[in-house]
Amino acid sequence: MGGTRLTHMTNTRTLIAFNTATASENKIHDDAVASRFGFTGGLVPGVDVFAYLAHAPMAAWGKDWLGCGHMRARFNRPVYDGDQAMVESGVDGADGMVMRVSARGETCATGSAQRTGAPAPTQLQGLAEMPALETRPKASMESLKVGATLGTLRELYSREAGLEHIAAVRDDAKLYDDGRIANAAWLLRRANYVLADNVKLGPWIHVESAIDMHSLLMDGEELEVRALVADNADSKGHLIVTLDVQMLSGVRHVMSCRHWAIYEPRQVRERA
């Protein structure tokens, strides 16, 4: 996000952050475990902070953006349950926007959006089956080998699930035809799921995502989530995986994204 300009913010929205993942298998969202990593509480999921940012382009451009726009977000500092989060946004050129989320006097996340994104990519080939949860391999350089195809995730989108998610991330259901259209952050959460359902993770941290939207996902439509390991590297002691993710409904692309996650923080490796 080095090129993102965060001056001239003209719109401000304030919300109370909510940790939707206290029961998650990812214990970085648990207060006791997160404190061992130097945090003061369980982290609000990055995909939910993404939702706080994504409200701005959706409110400005609506379904035009949700059906063909672009957004990128990076999570720099944690947002905690109960934080008063300030979400600011401002225009950046004719069809661009910059956003940030602040809490406790710190910038926690930055983002940028474009009204029009990249065209749909060529479909990922060579689908793989999702492993049974109890037989998932431990996340590692070997199980997340560069070029590997992950097991495909399939899920039906429902208005009820959409409304529950919209309420949890403090968004406005009217923007999504009262939940009949899936919002971008609901979709992005599936990038987390396709990773966690393929490999067994300890505490892990979502650090960045870049998405391109291609069409709307509607109530009752099935979603297929495909993923390829684009990179797996050691950065300052953290093991970071990069996924290229495609989400389709039938043959129609809904979203494509690049998704970065610290799947093994250096604190875990130091204790090993």
What descriptive keywords fit this protein?
272 residues, alpha+beta, Thiol Ester Dehydrase, Chain A, ten-stranded antiparallel sheet, 6 helices, 21% helix
Structural write-up:
By secondary structure, the chain is of the alpha+beta class. The protein has a single domain, classed as Hotdog Thioesterase (Thiol Ester Dehydrase, Chain A, Roll). It contains six helices and ten strands. A ten-stranded antiparallel sheet has the order 1-3-4-5-2-7-10-9-8-6. Helix 2 (46-61) packs antiparallel against helix 5. The longest helix is centred in the first third of the chain and has 16 residues, at 46-61. The two termini are 32 Å apart. The mean pLDDT is 91.
Number of strands: 10
Q: Which strand order does the major sheet show?
A: 1-3-4-5-2-7-10-9-8-6
Indicate the CATH class: Alpha Beta
Q: What is the global morphology?
A: globular
CATH fold group: Thiol Ester Dehydrase, Chain A
Question: How many structural domains are formed by the residues?
Answer: 1
Q: Superfamily at the CATH H level?
A: Hotdog Thioesterase
| SSE run | EHHHEEEEEHHEEEEH
How can the largest sheet be summarized?
Answer: 10 strands, antiparallel
Task: Please give the count of helices.
Answer: 6
Ends distance:
32 Å
Beta-strand level of the residues, as a percent range?
A: 25-35%
The chain-level mean pLDDT equals 91
Radius of gyration: 18 Å
Q: Tell me the CATH architecture.
A: Roll
Low-confidence stretches: none
Helix % is: 10-25%
Name the structural class: alpha+beta
